[in-house]
């Protein structure tokens, strides 16, 4: 059946949510960095080394901008994970075929909520007025996002076991794994150098912050795979029924593609 143009592009509204969040996040970071450089690299009251931390700039007169940015980014990240879970549940993305995938999906949403809340709170409780609370919420943000990334990667990995011939699923979790792995290593170095080498810690904080942009962008790739897929088309019940009736061959078209080619699916 040929779908209408509206159905073909029905996914665009929610698929752009992680892109919007990433754009706001990266744009704000660039604005803060450029402002600091353009004003002659001033040393803020809270600054320890010669390189300003994001939190140092965010505690200055740019605090309103920083709070708005963190609120938009935190909410965008949480909504992206919620929408991804909803699309799998509604049969517009390949579904979770086992309870373990559903558990990991739920845990990733919880991690996104914790990370988003930590991001918002660390911007409100700035390092100048609330140094202890700021670092606590910074830790909450890092842990929340880290857990969300790990659980999402595990979920995608298990899903790809059920749909072994959908190459895009493998690409999705490998890309997330590479980015998340690099960011986790950088976060560990940041935590060590935060107290021992302030300038090094500042550099790694900026690296982690900009790297988070790329992690957000990977979800555009995921949500885009629902393109042209109607509600229930990839439901667990429908796919299980096809397996039981022996229709394992050539029943699933390439997810997220513009063509109408078909793919096999099966569990390993």
From TrEMBL:
InterPro entries reported in the protein's UniProt record: CWH43_N, DRAM/TMEM150_Autophagy_Mod
Compartment(s) of residence: Endomembrane system
Any one Gene Ontology cellular component term annotated for this protein: endomembrane system
Keyword Membrane belongs to the record: yes
Entry membrane topology: Multi-pass membrane protein
Keyword Iron: no
Assigned keywords, A-Z: Membrane, Transmembrane, Transmembrane helix
Pfam families reported in the protein's UniProt record: Frag1 (PF10277)
Domain called CWH43-like N-terminal: residue spans: 14-224
Transmembrane domains' residue ranges: 12-38, 65-83, 103-125, 137-159, 171-197, 203-221
Protein name in the entry: CWH43-like N-terminal domain-containing protein
């Amino acid at each position: 059946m040929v779908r209408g143009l509206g159905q073909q592009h029905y996914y665009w509204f929610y698929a752009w949510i992680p892109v919007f969040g990433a754009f706001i996040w990266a744009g704000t970071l660039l604005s803060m960095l450029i402002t600091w450089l353009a004003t002659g690299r001033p040393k803020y009251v809270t600054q320890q080394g010669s390189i300003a931390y994001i939190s140092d700039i965010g505690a200055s007169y740019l605090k309103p901008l920083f709070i708005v940015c963190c609120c938009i980014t935190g909410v965008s990240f949480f909504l992206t994970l919620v929408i991804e879970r909803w699309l799998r549940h509604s049969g517009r993305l390949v579904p979770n075929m086992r309870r373990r995938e559903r558990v990991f999906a739920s845990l990733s949403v919880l991690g996104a909520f914790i990370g988003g809340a930590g991001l918002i709170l660390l911007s409100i409780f700035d390092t100048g007025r609330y140094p202890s609370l700021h670092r606590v919420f910074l830790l909450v943000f890092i842990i929340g996002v880290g857990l969300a990334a790990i659980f999402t990667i595990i979920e995608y990995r298990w899903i790809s076991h059920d749909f072994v011939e959908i190459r895009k699923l493998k690409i999705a979790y490998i890309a997330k794994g590479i980015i998340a792995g690099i960011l986790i290593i950088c976060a560990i170095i940041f935590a060590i150098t935060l107290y021992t080498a302030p300038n090094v810690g500042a550099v790694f904080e900026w690296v982690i912050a900009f790297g988070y942009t790329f992690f957000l962008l990977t979800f555009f790739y995921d949500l885009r795979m629902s393109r042209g897929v109607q509600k229930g088309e990839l439901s667990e019940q429908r796919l299980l029924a096809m397996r039981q009736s022996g229709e394992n061959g050539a029943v699933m078209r390439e997810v997220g593609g513009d063509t109408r080619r078909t793919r096999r699916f099966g569990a390993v």
